[in-house]
Write a structure and sequence with these properties.
36% of the residues lie in helices and 6% in strands. The protein has five helices and four strands, in the order αββββαααα. Helix 2 runs antiparallel to helix 4 (173-180). The longest helix has 21 residues, at 187-207.
Length: 208
């Protein structure tokens, strides 16, 4: 119940935006706290989709998503990207008390309070997962509870030692690395770097 109220409140605070899944109202008006209705995303989530579509929505309007990862990024019929699931998000008015999964959460941050650093770390891990096809220091799919637990322990151990996967052969690898190592400290800086990369990729495509 709390998660539903938080998600509805956060989505209303964000307002309409082409990069955020559109909330249409309760699925059943007689049971407004049961299920929520959203616009259709016929192309599913963003796993495997081209990086240049990744949109800078981190900390928009004072909102922290609190769970940035590829399966919370959806694609519509025109392959435009939007973020979903704001039940764990927070702003000045709402706090869904959400935290990212390991692989998308920095265990070196000695706080359970989500900040811009948390979101930017999740952005880096999302970019890595999209481009590498698997989680940082992990497989492409975590099928079992034991597998998730093993991955959580392994990732936490390596990340606490600031050991991250090699990104030198990945498009945008320098951005991913800087998200993980806190060289990128703001959403605005991440946005500028992504825009620059987008332009570089577009020029390369146009030449071909």
């Amino acid at each position: 119940m709390h998660k539903f109220r938080t998600e509805v409140g956060i989505l209303k605070a964000l307002g309409e935006h082409p990069r955020i899944v559109q909330y249409l109202g309760p699925l059943d008006p007689l049971e407004p706290a049961e299920d929520l209705l959203f616009t259709e995303a016929v192309n599913g989530d963003v796993q495997g989709y081209l990086l240049r579509r990744l949109s800078p929505t981190v900390t928009r309007g004072g909102v922290f998503h609190c769970d940035l990862r590829p399966d919370n990024m959806l694609l519509n019929a025109d392959l435009d990207l939007s973020l979903r699931y704001f039940g764990g998000s927070k702003n000045d008015e709402y706090d869904g008390e959400g935290l990212p999964d390991f692989g998308f959460f920095d265990p070196r941050i000695n706080s359970l309070d989500v900040t811009a650093d948390t979101e930017i770390f999740g952005l880096g891990s999302s970019m890595y997962t999209i481009l590498a096809g698997h989680f940082p220091h992990g497989p492409s799919i975590l099928k079992t509870a034991q597998g998730r637990l093993d991955y959580t322990c392994s990732f936490e151990r390596l990340a606490l030692e600031s050991q991250f996967p090699d990104t030198s052969e990945i498009i945008g690898g320098d951005i991913i690395r800087d998200c993980w190592t806190q060289r990128i400290r703001s959403a605005e800086e991440a946005y500028r770097r992504l825009v620059k990369l987008h332009r570089k990729l577009k020029l390369r495509t146009d030449k071909n």
